[in-house]
Amino acid sequence: MIRVGFRWLERGSCRHPQVMTIKGGSLCPVDFPALVGVIEHPSRGTFLFDTGYDPAFIKATEPFPERLYRWTTPVEIGAGEQWQAWLARHAIDESQLAGLIVSHFHGDHVAGAARLAQLPMYCARAGLDALRSGSRFARVRHGLLAALVPQAMDAQARFFEDAAERPLPSAFAPFTHGRDLLGDGSLLAVELPGHCAGHWGLAFVTKDGQPVLLCGDAVWSGAAIAQNRPPPRVTTALMGDTARYRATLAQLHHAHCHNSELAILPSHCPASAARLRGSDAG
Ligand SMILES: [Zn+2]
């Protein structure tokens, strides 16, 4: 695979009782950072994997019923999470941004999508369809805020489902194939079903030779993968499909147990992010 630069950076956070995210967890609220992948391709520019939180999230959750989302998931978006401030803090050159890769359309993953409205948006057709269908209330119940992704962006969509399938290196087993987003084998989208409609991860190898699987919200923590411990059924059934969720988790658990070099990074797990930074320039 063509190797890419990679950083895994926080942009805002939210609070959930831990028990919602892992069986047997505590009732205490825990902070979950929203992590954004900054992927530097050697010749095609910089791609973001998700956007984390953005002040646009506050605006989108002002009206009812969208406000329910913010009530049930209190969000922390600091001054440093403003778009320009966040780019500057991490020395990301906005003119080099070449596309947005969307794991899924939950509000905490696409809150900043409008900042990238002119760029290609790599995403699942099933996810975008879900964002555009159903009542406002039903969408909020599923964690979807259609206002965060301007309708004009639909014309920029490059669907995972339409990309050519390519084999993955053995380091990603039992995941064997991915969808080749750029046509050069550098970034392969891997379907990780169950969390919600159109939920995908991203496989690549960093400049240092580290294989990485960004797994979005397939789990909330690396510990859940290591222990094959899903959230309670009530959480997974609310937004997705429990049987498919658990089958995906079992695959991630298998990958974790059999590929010691593979970094599997959930979008809200600070411990996994810290471990990666420990072994990588991060
Ligand atoms: Zn999600």
Structure in words:
This protein is of the alpha/beta class and 282 residues long. The chain has one domain (5-279): 4-Layer Sandwich (Metallo-beta-lactamase, Chain A), CATH 3.60.15. 27% of the residues lie in helices and 25% in strands. It has helices at 55-60, 67-72, 83-89, 107-110, 125-131, 136-141, 222-227, 233-239, 242-258, 270-279, and strands at residues 5-17, 29-41, 45-49, 75-76, 97-101, 121-123, 157-159, 165-167, 177-180, 188-191, 200-205, 211-216, 263-266. The strands form two sheets. It has a seven-stranded mixed β-sheet. It has a six-stranded mixed β-sheet with strand order 8-9-10-11-12-13. The structure holds zinc ion. Zinc ion binds next to loops.
Helix/strand order: EEEHHEHEHEHHEEEEEEHHHEH
Give the CA-based shape.
Answer: globular
Low-confidence stretches: none
Helix content: 25-40%
Could you give the order of strands across the largest sheet?
Answer: 4-1-2-3-5-6-7
Estimate nothing, just give the exact number of structural domains: 1
Task: Output the structural class.
Answer: alpha/beta
How many beta-strand segments? Answer: 13
Distance between the termini: 19 Å
Give the DSSP E fraction (strand runs of 2 or more residues).
Answer: 25-35%
Give me the number of helical elements. 10
CATH architecture: 4-Layer Sandwich
